[in-house]
Write a structure and sequence with these properties.
It is built from eleven helices and eight strands. It is α/β, with parallel strands linked by helices. Strands 1-2-3-4-5-6-7-8 form an eight-stranded parallel beta sheet. The N terminus is likely disordered.
């Protein structure tokens, strides 16, 4: 089994290069490095992160964050995503019904989702106008659709007392599929990229995508863990694939190896924070445990994931960072509001 840990000298070298670039641009009056970092999928609105939010934002700024797609999963947390987007221009808001929350969705969830997008678009339009008056600021992205998807794991393999599913009705796959396809169609009609969750349902997802109306920008298969043989088929449909930091764990060889087959122009990087904590040498930021005792993933670990993936793929860090930045812009910020 391959050891994914980089030599300590590599870690020091990467950090020195990034810090030098950061200092250089600060001295020139720029607030971000020449190769900023992007998190394709997280849940910064999570209640478990709320007590640490100020420190998290400071740590993200120090890492050079330039964009992060913050995914809502139910009507209960959509307003929290909107609040973060109003405070931080680098937050790309995303709203959807997660398959775990599908069984508890309210009767008017579709109207609520449409209204949330309309309100978000008004805010993003204002932010975009403000950014145009300041030289060097990027276009502000419209809200995306996500996190949506399909999940057989919670039906077939999750324990009855799994605390992550406490209080949730576990919707059968056909119900999940109906909710997923409605949201995917909304994404296509409104020109929004979608962020898709899938566990133990890759065949069902692929069959659904074959006949569904898809967003022209494409869609993200977040924390892709599907078969390596399906990468090309999904890519042909417009998929992007995000590498999660937990895949750097020495035991997760299969997930890492799959990403050698992902086209470089479809590669993104994510934390999924506070979920999927990193148990490897690339973990640089730690948070205290959540109230239930489970570990929390710090969103600012995004920098360590970039470095770990560059090492695994034997790619220069700067080249990988630039490629991921281009991919993020293409999928999530393709046009002005």
């Amino acid at each position: 089994m391959a050891d994914t840990r980089a030599p300590k000298s590599n870690l020091i070298g990467y950090s020195l290069v990034r810090n030098f670039i950061r200092v250089f641009w600060v001295l020139r009056g720029q607030s971000q490095s020449v190769t900023p970092l992007y998190d394709a999928h997280n849940h910064l609105q999570s209640e478990s992160l709320a007590p640490h939010l100020d420190q998290i934002v400071a740590d993200l700024s120090a890492e050079g964050i330039a964009g992060a797609v913050v995914n809502g999963t139910s009507p209960e947390d959509w307003p929290k995503v909107s609040a973060l987007a109003s405070r931080h221009s680098w937050v790309v808001p995303s709203y959807g019904i997660h398959p775990w929350d599908c069984g508890n969705r309210p009767a008017d969830w579709q109207d609520q989702l449409r209204n949330t997008f309309a309100q978000s678009d008004q805010l993003r339009s204002l932010q975009s106008l403000q950014s145009e008056s300041k030289v060097g600021l990027p276009t502000v992205a419209l809200a995306k659709v996500g996190e949506i998807g399909l999940d057989r794991w919670m039906l077939n393999r999750a324990k009855p007392d799994d605390p992550r599913l406490a209080g949730l009705r576990r919707a059968p796959l056909d119900e999940q599929l109906e909710v997923f396809l409605w949201q995917l169609n909304l994404a296509a009609d409104q020109g929004r990229a979608a962020s898709i969750h899938c566990i133990d349902a890759w065949g069902a997802l692929f069959e659904a995508l074959l006949t569904a109306k898809l967003p022209k920008q494409g869609f993200l298969l977040h924390a892709y863990s599907g078969p390596i043989e399906m990468v090309k088929a999904f890519a042909d449909l417009g998929a992007y694939f995000s590498f999660n930091g937990s895949y750097l764990d020495p035991k997760r060889t299969n997930q890492r190896e799959t990403f050698k087959s992902v086209p470089m122009d479809r590669l993104l990087i994510e934390t999924d924070a506070p979920s999927m904590p990193m148990r490897n040498d690339w973990n640089r930021h730690n948070l205290s445990e959540s109230p239930d005792g489970s570990p929390l993933n710090h969103p600012a670990n995004i920098g360590g994931i970039y470095e770990g993936l560059a090492d695994f793929l034997a790619q220069p860090l700067d080249a990988l960072t630039l490629q991921v930045a281009q991919n993020f812009q293409t999928l999530f910020i393709p046009t002005k509001v």
